[in-house]
């Protein structure tokens, strides 16, 4: 099974996330992994059975890269999208963060677009559908992480959710009253599918440059919780199942 991992972007400890994901992939001896820092490696994407992305503020650079992702899915590829894959961040002169839809074809393909999050704090995650291989046997759980708020851009099948009513003062899209905020969802595209898990924030001392030179408190959030690693392993298994079926 060929897996293509894209781990890159801003404001996160990408090196930590990349290493953790590679360690999980190495648990499956049949997997061979290629690694990239953007969406430009179309050759390895074309050979892949599964794509994994852990990014923030990283979009495909042109229409050809979006088209390659669409082709990958429609031929039967599986895409495990993590945390900030759907996020674009632009800091306004007033210090408030905008989240523009810079590549609409990409956000439509993913099914959601990041809009903001409240300060990191514990929140409860609910099992929306318990009959999926990602959620079978799971119970509702609590986790401390960034609670990602998104706008839906296409039909999605929500598997885990939380809720949020309040404000995100750092973001332009500040006011929210959402009874069902997707935490894990699946979206079918052609013969393939996307599995999007919004958990997984991480940040080290130097990941907010140039906004600030030193971040005093490294953050690992959901990476500290066994349930997150269970979901990642299940996500890799979800991709493996597709390769076997193919």
From TrEMBL:
Provide this UniProt record's keywords sorted from A to Z. Answer: Glutamine amidotransferase
**Carries keyword Lyase?**
no
Q: Does the keyword Transcription regulation apply?
A: no
* Residue stretches making up the ThuA-like domain: 21-207
The protein in question is named Type 1 glutamine amidotransferase
């Amino acid at each position: 099974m060929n897996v293509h991992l894209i781990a890159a972007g801003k404001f996160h400890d990408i090196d930590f996330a990349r290493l953790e994901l590679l360690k999980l992939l190495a648990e499956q001896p049949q997997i061979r992994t290629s690694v990239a820092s953007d969406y430009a490696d179309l050759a390895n994407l074309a050979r892949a059975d599964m794509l994994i992305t852990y990014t923030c503020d990283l979009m495909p650079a042109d229409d050809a890269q979006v088209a390659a992702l669409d082709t990958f899915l429609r031929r039967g590829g599986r895409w495990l999208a993590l945390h900030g894959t759907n996020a674009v961040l632009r800091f306004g002169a007033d210090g408030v963060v905008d989240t523009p839809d810079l590549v609409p074809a990409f956000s439509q393909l993913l099914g959601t677009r990041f809009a903001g999050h409240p300060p990191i704090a514990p929140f409860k995650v609910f099992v929306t559908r318990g009959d999926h291989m990602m959620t079978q046997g799971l119970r509702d759980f609590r986790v401390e992480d960034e609670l990602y708020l998104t706008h839906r851009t296409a039909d999605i099948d929500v598997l885990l959710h939380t809720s949020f009513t309040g404000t995100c003062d750092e973001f332009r899209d500040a006011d929210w009253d959402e009874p069902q905020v997707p935490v894990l969802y699946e979206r079918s595209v052609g013969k393939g599918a996307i599995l999007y898990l919004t958990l997984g924030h991480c940040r080290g001392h130097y990941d907010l440059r140039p906004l600030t030179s030193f971040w005093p408190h490294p953050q690992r959030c959901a990476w500290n919780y066994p349930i997150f690693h269970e979901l990642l392993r299940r996500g890799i298994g979800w991709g493996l199942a597709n390769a076997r079926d193919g």
